[in-house]
Amino acid sequence: MFISILSRLTTQKTGFLKENVKLVTNAIQNHYRFLNSQVVKFTIQTDNNLGQTISYRYTLDDQNNILSKEQRDFYEENGYLIVKNLLSKDYLDRYINRFNEYATGQLKPRPDLLLQKELATKSENIDEQSLYKIGELYADDVLFGYCKHPRILDYVQCMVGPNIMAIHTMLINKPPDRGTKSSRHPLHQDLHYFPMRPADRIVCAWTALEKITKENGCLVAIPGTHKGKHLEHDYPDWEGGVNKFYYGIKDLSVQDARVHLEMEPGDTVLFHPILIHGSGVNRTNGFRKAISCHYAPAEAEFIDVCGTIQEKLADEIMTIFLKKYGTIEIEMDYATLWKLRARKVRGIGEYKL
Ligand SMILES: O=C(O)CCC(=O)C(=O)O
């Protein structure tokens, strides 16, 4: 079903006219119809050193041979892979400086850049303590440079294939905890947010912009859970609440097997969207910054999440979207919202808004 929610866009905020929105929506549908007609068939069989045929499911053959066999096997088995020192300090400084320009008000954000405040500082002005997350990084050339970085894309291609879209982008600044623990991110699976499939061809790249440890709230993951199912999620029942959209897995029984992903600046973890992961409280006096991008193939299938376990979150995200852009009526659904936000970063089928 294409039309599930009637949404409203504003001319002032987006600069779109009603007719243009319709044209854009049609163009996106045609674009994905074109890409879907060219779906790449992914090979999942290869030989191991003993001459036996083994199956790889989560990584692709014949991409750019950048993954060593050990790295590939590790990702297949655990659902994540840390690549040490992938980005140099110049790049990290560039992203941190850009964050600081927004946090200090030196730079005015484009209307489509999302500046999100931490729950504990909701009523405060934007500064380094309150500015928790910058989203929709395509609205900033410097930050979007991360999503297009060839060193990142060379690894991403091993999971996604040659035609790559950036589907979800964030710079996350976890501030020192003020006793509320509100910057914790409950254990979740990222697929819960995404209306595209197949899950095995989606991957997140998450790069430490500074040293990230257990004390300042590193990522935690449960290795091997990418082989499981997409589980039911909801807001956790935490005293003091939880940040907007921080859904966690309901009734999770395997908490004890978690590992802490401590990382040096420039280290990058790639992880599967069904891997169960989250992050802890920042118990230090410093900030914990990371930048991330989720990627999917340009040929991905967009699904209708109505009637699925994703519907509640999708409705919540659509409601926020409508509130932000509210005056012209257009027809829009959750999948189209994600198509509008996706940007082609490598390969064929370039689509520019
Ligand atoms: O950076 C964090 O603290 C958590 C990020 C995360 O879990 C995610 O992006 O899915």
Structure, described:
The protein is α+β, with helices and mostly antiparallel strands. It has a single domain, classed as Sandwich (Jelly Rolls), CATH 2.60.120.620. The chain has helices at 11-14, 18-36, 69-78, 89-103, 141-147, 150-160, 311-324, 334-341; strands at 5-9, 45-47, 53-55, 80-83, 114-117, 131-135, 164-174, 185-188, 196-197, 203-208, 219-222, 233-234, 248-249, 259-261, 268-271, 276-279, 288-297, 301-302, 328-332, 343-346. Strands 4, 5, 6, 7, 10, 15, 17 and 20 form an eight-stranded antiparallel beta sheet that branches. A hairpin with a 5-residue loop joins β2 and β3. The radius of gyration is 20 Å and the shape is globular. Mean pLDDT is 84; it is low at 1-20 and 36-49. The structure holds 2-oxoglutaric acid (AKG). Pfam families: PhyH. GO terms for molecular function: L-ascorbic acid binding; metal ion binding; phytanoyl-CoA dioxygenase activity. Pathway: Lipid metabolism; fatty acid metabolism. It comes from Blomia tropicalis. Keywords: Dioxygenase, Iron, Metal-binding, Oxidoreductase, Vitamin C.
Write the layout of secondary structure elements.
Elements: E1 5-9, H1 11-14, H2 18-36, E2 45-47, E3 53-55, H3 69-78, E4 80-83, H4 89-103, E5 114-117, E6 131-135, H5 141-147, H6 150-160, E7 164-174, E8 185-188, E9 196-197, E10 203-208, E11 219-222, E12 233-234, E13 248-249, E14 259-261, E15 268-271, E16 276-279, E17 288-297, E18 301-302, H7 311-324, E19 328-332, H8 334-341, E20 343-346
Antiparallel strand pairs: 1-19, 2-3, 4-15, 5-6, 6-7, 7-17, 7-20, 8-16, 9-18, 10-15, 10-17, 11-14, 11-16, 12-13
InterPro entries: PhyH, Phytyl_CoA_dOase-like
GO biological process, one term: fatty acid alpha-oxidation
GO molecular function, one term: L-ascorbic acid binding
